[in-house]
Amino acid sequence: MSRIVIVSNRLADPRKTAAGGLAVAIGDALQDSGGMWFGWSGRVVEPGQTAGTRSAQVRNVGAVTTATIDLTRAEYDSYYLGYSNSVLWPVFHYRLDLAQFRTDFLEGYRRVNRLFAQALAPLLRDGMNLVAKEFIAAQDEDDPGVLVLSRFAGAAEQLHEAVLVNPYDIPATADAIQRALRMPREERVRRHQALLETIRRQDVKWWRSAYLDALREVEAPREAAAA
Edge-to-edge strand order for the sheet containing 35-45? Predict the structure, then answer.
């Protein structure tokens, strides 16, 4: 197994010793093989605080890429305290007497999972363009990962060898992620080499020149008309 993708209700910090046996096992497996771990960050956005764009917070911790989102207090109450801890935990531990089957818990759980599906796997917003390019630069050239990128991101115009998706089409995005996970090494290497060549050639100096050239093309007709 070359890589692992973990989805969990709450993310453990891979750098710290975890208390639970499952978290320890998952952390060790990710550190050994590399992979991605995403879920709730553990942070609750209180009233009066901003939840930002609700996009994933992506960072690299050793061989592990983590992607997390914050929850509002209402989401925390229904998704984590509610369905995760008051339904799933008792059921999976054969304590049905402790389970609280409430429709608002289920609705909150579904709502947060829809948020996970739309924020984390594809890079959706233009602010994530740099992260996409950093992902390319950080890969092992002999065994690279696959970039799954929103076709609405500005970087999609440059990074043609990424697996491009419409992040609002959740079934198609899920299919694209599955395709990326199963992609043969030869194809991954070929795509990565092309992407790496692109970001090396089209660096910040290239972007600056292209931007200024575009401005000059707009300004030239105006100057001609004024003359």
Answer: 4-10, 35-45, 64-72, 57-61
What is d(CA 136, CA 140) in angstroms, rounded to the nearest whole number? 9
Q: What secondary structure letter does DSSP report for 36?
A: E
Range of the domain at 218: 121-227
Burial class (CB in 10 A: 0-12, 13-18, 19+), 154: middle
Work out the average pLDDT over 146-164.
90
Which among 47, 5, 46 is positioned nearest to 26, based on CA atoms? Answer: 5
CB of 35 closer than 8 Å to CB of 64: yes
CB contact at 8 A, 79 and 112? yes
What is residue 206's predicted lDDT score, i.e. its pLDDT? Answer: 81
Evaluate whether residue 133 is within a structural domain: yes
Which amino acid, 207? Answer: W
- The DSSP line for 72-101 is EHHHIIIIIIIIIIIIIHHHHTT-GGG---
User: Residue type at 39?
Assistant: G
Q: pTM for the full model?
A: 0.53
Token pair for 170? 């959740």
Range in 19-28, 102-111, 121-130, 199-208 with the lowest mean pLDDT: 121-130
Query: Would residue 44 count as lying in a domain?
Result: no
The CATH number assigned to the domain holding 205 equals: 3.40.50.2000
**169 part of a folded domain:** yes
Q: Indicate the SS3 state at residue 150.
A: strand
For the chain, helix (H) and strand (E) counts, in that order, are 8, 6
Answer yes or no: is 151 within a domain.
yes
State the total domains in the chain. 1
pLDDT at 1: 45
